[in-house]
Design goal:
9% helix, 2 helices, 98 residues, 40% strand, 6 strands
Length: 98
């Protein structure tokens, strides 16, 4: 019986994208439930800072798609235990070649 990961705000996690929804990705982090990575919590290509558009929603899979490995930081854990992630630093994001 393996224990499940219980994260804390500020933790660096490696997760696997397991779903793409409206404005968010679901990320498997070996926790009680999947974590959430909101479209607003990622850097857009080229580091552009702006409001996310409907076109950004349609092209979410160009950033992260199912089975991609990503590094992220835990931004928040709500009262129901749902973990929110962010990749708003250039040290986080999709892991390549590994």
């Amino acid at each position: 019986n393996r224990s499940r990961y219980i994260g804390e705000v500020g933790d660096l996690v490696i997760g696997r994208i397991c779903g793409v929804d409206m404005k968010r990705w679901k990320v498997e982090i070996a926790g009680q439930r999947d974590a959430v990575l909101q479209l607003s919590a990622v850097n857009l290509p080229g580091g552009v800072q702006r409001m996310r558009t409907y076109e950004d929603q349609l092209s979410m899979r160009t950033l992260f798609s199912e089975n991609d490995l990503v590094s992220a930081e835990i931004q928040n854990i709500n009262s129901e235990g749902i973990v929110s992630l962010h990749t708003r630093s250039f040290k986080y994001g999709k892991l390549e070649n590994g």
